[in-house]
Write a structure and sequence with these properties.
Layout: E1 4-5, E2 13-16, E3 21-23, E4 31-32, E5 36-39, E6 46-49, H1 52-58, E7 62-66, E8 75-78, E9 87-92, E10 101-104, E11 111-114, H2 116-119, E12 122-125, E13 132-135, E14 142-144, E15 150-151, E16 155-158, E17 165-167
Parallel strand pairs: 1-4, 2-5, 3-6, 5-7, 6-8, 7-9, 8-10, 9-11, 10-12, 11-13, 12-15, 13-16, 14-17
Amino acid sequence: AETVSGGSGTLDNLQFAAGTLVVAASDLVNVTGIEVMEIQNTTQTAGLTLADAFFTANGNTALTVNASTMTSGALTLSASTLSAANSISLNLSSTTHSATNAISLGAGNDTVRADLIALDAGVISAGAGTDTLVISENTGAGAITQAAGITGFETVTFLTAAGVHNCITNN
């Protein structure tokens, strides 16, 4: 594991350059002072696994994961073991992100910001906290259904008024 220190600032950013990416929880044990992880892949796959040990070593209970530059590359974010003390804010807002993502969040109060195209396929499981799904862009009319694999969100917010959106839940 590499040693990375973001210092005492409030918006310290750890960027992962383009290319196939796999970051295991054990790779992050010596990372401190980071508030934002940016995945700059576009067409390659990216995998990121987060555990409570990272948050403890990092010294922060919240992390932003920015994957807004991804287009056809799939993101696998594995964070289902996180305790309620730790939360993730995931940005998938790209009007061209059409990959099949696999996102599993933990027990914290998490937020996922995404465009409809990023929600069309794959799985986004919010976990046990009070979680929010923010639909931030619109590339046209669309529907988000239970079949789309989106589960566990207590709040769904639409930021744009263009197009027609249907939100169907089984709750």
